[in-house]
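Sanity check. The docking grid for calcium ion depends on where the pocket ends up, so I'm generating a full predicted complex first rather than guessing from homology. Inputs follow.
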Amino acid sequence: MTRRRRRLLGFAIIAVLAGLLPPVLMLTLSHRIAERNAVETLDGYAAVLQNRALEVFRSGEATLSEMAQRIDRNCTDNSVQELRKAVYRSLYFREAGLVYGQALQCTSEQVFDPPIPIANPDHLVMPADGIHIAAPQITLEGEVSIVLLYRVTDGIAVNLLLNPQHLTEPLLGAVNAEHVRLVIERSDGILLAQFGATGTDDVIRASSQPPGYPVRVIVSASRAWMMRDWARNLRGFFGIGLLLSLPIFLLLKRVERREQTMDVQIRDALEAGELRVHYQPIHSIDGLRVVGVEALMRWQHPRRGLILPGAFIPVAEENGFILPLTHWLMRTVCTEMAALLDRHPDLYLALNLSPRHFADPELPQLIRNIFAAPFAAGRLVFEVTERELMDSRTQTASDVMDLLRRDGSRVALDDFGTGYSSLQYLAQFKFDLLKIDKAFVDAIGTESVTAGLVDDMVAMSKRLGMKAVAEGVETAAQLHYLQQLGIEYVQGWYFSEALPLDQLETYLARHANPR
Ligand code: C2E
Ligand code: CA
Ligand code: CA
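Predicted complex below; grid placement will be based on this.
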C-alpha cells in the first residue's frame, strides 16, 4: 500500500470514527438516561404502593384491636354490633367475623348456627402480636378477599375481609397496564394483589417493604415500555451527537497528526517532494574565491516553513532512512549542479555522509553510478564526522574511504575537535581535508580556554599534509585571525549562508572565476 493510500485510509477511519462515535455515545447515553428514568418512575410507583399497603394494614390492625377489646367472646348482639361498626368505619373492608373452635361463629351480616368450619389453617393463625395476613381466597360472598386475623384471647380471633384491589387502587389510573406490573406479596412469596401486565420480558424492577408488615411491593416493566420513552428522546440526542461529530473529527485529526512520528513525516516529505538542497559556499583564504560548496539538506514544510536538518537528520540516522535520503540528495545534487560545475571547473562539491554509509561496501559503486555521467567523481568531497567513524565497523569504513579516494573523491573529517579521540582517527584514516568545528572559530579572540586551539589544529593539519577548512566564520576579526594562521579555506555566514541553487548561481557569478 502506498503512503498516500495509507493516509487516505487513516483519514477514512477517522471520519468514520468521528461520524459514528458521537451518535453511538449519545445512543448509549440516552439509553442509560431512559433506563434511569424508568427505574425512577417505578421507584415512585413502589413508594405509592407501599404507602397504600401501610395505610390499609394499619387501619386493619387498629380496627381489629379495637374490635377485640369491645367484642364479647361469643356471638352476642353486642358482638355482631361491634363487627358491623368495624366494617362501616372503613371503606377497605367487606366483612368482619369472630372465629373460635376453628370455625367462623358470626360475621357483621349474620350469626352461623351451626358455625362454619374453617379448613384452611392459614385462616386460623392467631398471631401473638399485631395482625396475620392470610392468603387471598374466595370467601362467602363469592369474591376474592385477603383475610386479616387478630388474636382476642387463646383460641379466639377477630378477622376482616379486605378486597385486594384496594391495595393497588391509587395507581390504577396512572400506570400503563399493558407494560407495567404491580405486585404485593407476602414475604413468603404468597401473592396478595396484582395489577397490570403479566408478560415475562420484564427488565426493570423496583421493590420496597412496608415497615412492620411481612409483605413486599414489587413493580416491574417491560423493555418495550422503556424503549418507548427512549425513542421519544432519541431524536434530540442524535442531533447533539451529530453536532459533536465535527469537533471530534478535528480533535482526532490533530491527534493523528501528532501520532504521526517524525519518522513517518520524513518519509512522506521525501515522497511529496518537500526536501530541498541548499549550498553553502566555501572560500579560499587568499583572494576569497569560491572553491567549493557544501550541500546541506532542507525540508520545505507546507505549514511549518523551512526546517533545518538538525530537526530530522538525527531521526533519519537513527532509523536508517538516512540511506534513501542521501541517495535522493546525491541524485538531486547531480542533476541540479551539473551545469554549474561545468561552468566552474575548479569548484568542488561537498556532501555529508552518515555512519551507515560507511558500513555499506556498495557505497562507492552507488556513487559511481550516480555521478559518472555529468561530472567526474574527482569533483566530490565526502564529509565524515568522528562520530560516524566511531559508530561504523572500522575495517569497512576504511575500505569504503579507500575506494572513494581511488575514484578521485576526497574525504574530509567534519566537526574536527568535537569527538572523543580526534587524534586517533587522524592516525587511523587518511583524510584530505580537516574541517575545524565552529566552536573553535567562535573562541577566537575570546578568553575561552579553547581560544588558542585553532592555531594548533591548523599547524597539525599542515604537518599531516592536509588542508584545513574553518567552519562557521562569522566576523571579519575571525577571518583576519585565520588569514594570519595560513589556513586554506573558510566557510561561514560572514560570506554566505547555504543558498538555494538560483541564489548560488548569482553568488558564484560574483565570487568565483568562471571558465
Ligand atoms: P555540518 O555538516 O557541520 O554543516 C554545517 C552547519 O553549520 C550547517 O547547518 C550550516 O548552515 C551551519 N553554518 C555554516 N556557517 C555558519 C555560521 O557562520 N554560523 C552558524 N551559526 N552556522 C553556520 P545545517 O545546514 O543546519 O546542518 C546541520 C548539520 O546537519 C550539518 O552539520 C550536518 O551534520 C547535517 N546535515 C546537513 N545536511 C546533511 C545531509 O545531506 N546528510 C547528512 N548526513 N547530514 C546532513
Ligand atoms: Ca559538513
Ligand atoms: Ca561541520
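Relevant for the grid: The first helix runs from residue 3 to 70.
Also worth noting: The first strand starts at residue 93 and ends at 100.
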